[in-house]
Design a protein that fits this description.
The protein has 189 residues and is mostly helical. It contains 10 helices and no strands. Helix 1 crosses helix 4 and helix 2 crosses helix 3. The radius of gyration is 19 Å and the shape is elongated.
């Protein structure tokens, strides 16, 4: 490996900090997680966390840079978009605990709420814009979709309401898919 292609120690340190921060934010929430605890988990000095990320808010924003990996809906029949999105979000929520941590933090912390808003705005709004019949209403329609998807995630993965936890994935898709579909493609009331 040449010097220019070898991983730098700073990259490894940043990675260790972000991994520790994700775990700590998931376990403790934003308010209780501390720079000291994160640094201890990463086996580094707390000053290194501050050097790379400035403060806890900066670290949180970096730790929850999330790509929702929304599917390309161009190949999905327009009438199946709602089901496709609900299925996709179930996959994402079940495979990535960072999203659950982000949801918890978003409820109790303004920076977390802003970060969550930006992720959904930047990634869900373009999808809504492509499939809705009135692109000017895309922000409203994306917001309605987010309310359904986040409400589902809150009750299933955070609050763990027994009926939601017990519900089979396909059953959730059958119930929530048509609602998301209506939000995206139905004529405006």
């Amino acid at each position: 490996m040449t010097e220019s292609t070898a991983p730098r120690r700073s990259d490894a340190t940043r990675g260790a900090i972000l991994d520790a921060a994700r775990e700590r934010f998931a376990a403790d929430g934003y308010e209780r997680a501390t720079i000291r605890a994160i640094a201890k988990d990463a086996r580094i000095d707390p000053s290194m966390v501050m050097r790379y990320y400035g403060n806890k808010e900066g670290l949180f924003a970096a730790a929850i840079s999330i790509d929702l990996r929304l599917p390309d809906l161009a190949a999905v029949p327009r009438e199946d978009v709602g089901r496709a999105l609900v299925t996709h979000f179930l996959d994402v929520w079940e495979k990535d605990e960072v999203l659950t941590a982000m949801l918890r933090v978003g409820i109790t912390n303004a920076a977390g709420a802003e970060r969550m808003q930006s992720i959904f705005r930047d990634q869900l709004l373009p999808v809504a814009s492509r499939v809705c019949p009135d692109p000017a209403a895309a922000p409203l329609r994306a917001g309605l979709c987010a309310s359904q998807i986040l409400g589902m995630a809150m009750t299933r993965y955070v609050l763990r309401f027994p009926p939601m936890v017990a519900m089979a994935r396909e059953e959730i898709v059958d119930w929530a898919g048509p609602t998301v579909q209506r939000y995206l493609t139905a004529e405006r009331p």
